[in-house]
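Problem: given the chain below (319 residues), write out its structure.
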Amino acid sequence: MRDGLVWMLWLAIAVSAPFFAGQHLLYNIGIVATTAAIVSGLTLISGVGGLISIAQSAFVAIGCYCAVLLNLHLGIPMLIGIPIAAAVSGAVGWLLGFLCLRLDGHFLALVTLAFSGIVHYAIINLDIAGGAVGLAVPTVTLFGFVMDSPMAIYVITVVASGLTLWFIGLLINSRYGRVLRALRQSEIAAVSLGVDRRSLRTMALATSAVAGGFAGSFQMLQVTYLDPHQFTIVSSVFYIAIMVVGGMRSVHGAIIGAAIFVFVPEFLSGLETYMAFILFLLVTVFIVIMPDGLASIFSVPGRISRWISSRFERKNKNA
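Solution.
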């Protein structure tokens, strides 16, 4: 019930935004949506599965560059190329997970960190990817119509991001998500009950890669230019910070964290020099004070009602 109400809140904001928001605010809301969808992949693998992945920016880069190159060299429309690029990103994620089946904890973190660095080095040095200069993003066409207006891009990106968030949310609350939680809480107990640890974690990394490649490609349509310096290791750490601040256990946390990391710099525009310090100080504060992230505020009414119910039950028993 509570989860449905939160989804209705996000839907109301997304639908009403074009009627009250200016062009700049609309752009930022779209960036929040696509960033949240990217981070939702991390929510699945790190927040639910307990695996540390620092490769999300690499999967975003693979999706973005594949979609653009398919359009430039094969003439595949962007809206068709993006799902293909997301599938390529997912295949790379699956292969990475397969090669790292025996790794866990900080060992897996180091491998994904190295993979992120390799992808960044590759796109800077490959001429087909534009090198250090980058690539211009082609315009989107739908049934012969050019979709280049801010409103059209907003609708496309928000719908795609919403579908991504909804799908990841379904996975988290499904049997698959429950098994991932069981692996995180007690791997020995889960394996003893017949859970295939290797295949589940490989698929989790692949799904996270698909989410990153798909949502990142739609964010690329907003930014309109592929700069290889957007896909550094720092970007992967940035996505992890968003997940931690918002909440690691649900896609609602990804949305809240993305909103904070997009809008806080807007409100503190005069402090650009100290922005990184402010944001990561925020992360530290939330880890100490609210380890479950800001998304935990949605569970407060339920906790209060349970506390009141327990008080009444005690009084009735004493009476």
